[in-house]
Specification:
Complement Module, domain 1; 5 domains; 3-stranded antiparallel beta sheet; disordered N terminus
Length: 287
């Protein structure tokens, strides 16, 4: 049986039992999860707490409370106190204020005009000044050539004209082969003249085109071609004889010039004494 409170004879006000403990009639208390409970006629009634928020940027509920607070503002995850004046990090000189849990922001109104410098001290945006140069007007950022050629490039920056010469490549030809053509900004290399002969590096001799010579070996002949190149070819000796004669400066041995005897050369029908026996006389006979 539920306990009963003392009252007038014949009357009683029922109490409530909640989680093993009595609750007075009409008592109110809070349960975890922001639930509000009350004891009515011996019954416990609980409901979720409703939080009307009369502001646009409320602060999170403080510890031990269920409803957020409108005393202050929460802007981009940063808590702002009541009456705090600040500028957003991504705003163009915008000023904001926290009033009654609401954030109000205003931006400055800037009249149109020219920029005083590349970095204006105020927050107003500006229209870059135009450039007047040699009777022509150019907008900010415009690029144009000087005197109608491509050698000098100019640009308009905030009312001032900056000009620079076009860069030229580095040439690898000697000074006497460099040439500046009509309408050109940079020197170019002339084509080298056609070769008049062949230059041989090993002995420093230059041969005219069509010249044939031997580079030191009598069996090798070289010719200077029309393009300045050198073509060489060796001579093959096909004539054979039992007693060939080697003539200095001649590639192939001669089989009809004479005879070779003890390192000496004798012509056909020539007589000479024998080295082995001075009483003997020898004769060269070419067969």
């Amino acid at each position: 049986p539920s306990p009963r409170a003392a009252g007038a004879p014949g009357t009683s006000v029922p109490h409530c039992w909640y989680q093993g403990a009595p609750r007075e009639p009409g008592a109110r208390w809070m349960e975890p999860g922001c639930r509000s409970c009350t004891c009515q006629q011996g019954r416990v009634l609980c409901e979720a707490v409703s939080c009307p928020v009369p502001c646009s940027h409320p602060l999170p509920a403080p510890a031990g409370r269920c409803c957020p607070s409108c005393t202050g503002c929460l802007h981009n995850g940063v808590a702002r106190a009541e009456g705090d004046v600040f500028s957003p990090s991504d705003g163009n000189c915008t000023v904001c204020i926290c009033l009654g849990g609401n954030i109000s922001c205003i931006s400055p109104e800037c009249p149109p005009g020219s920029c005083p410098s590349s970095s204006p001290p105020d927050c107003c945006s500006c229209q870059p000044a135009k450039c007047t140069f040699r009777g022509h007007t150019y907008p900010h950022g415009a690029r144009f050539s000087l005197d109608g050629d491509d050698c000098t490039t100019c640009v308009c920056r905030g009312g001032e004209v900056e000009c620079s010469f076009a860069p030229c490549p580095i040439l690898d030809c000697p000074q006497h082969q460099r040439h500046l053509g009509p309408g050109q900004c940079c020197f170019t290399c002339r084509d080298p003249p056609a070769p008049a002969g062949c230059f041989v590096d090993d002995n420093g001799v230059e041969f005219p085109i069509g010249q044939i010579w031997s580079p030191g070996d009598p069996c090798e002949l070289c010719i200077c071609q029309a393009d300045g190149s050198v073509t060489c070819k060796r001579t093959d000796c096909v004539e054979t004889c039992p007693y060939p004669i080697r003539i200095p400066g001649q590639c192939c041995p001669d089989c009809s010039a004479g005879c070779t005897y003890m390192g000496r050369i004798f012509y056909n029908n020539e007589t000479f004494p024998s080295v082995l026996d001075p009483c003997l006389s020898c004769i060269c006979l070419v067969r």
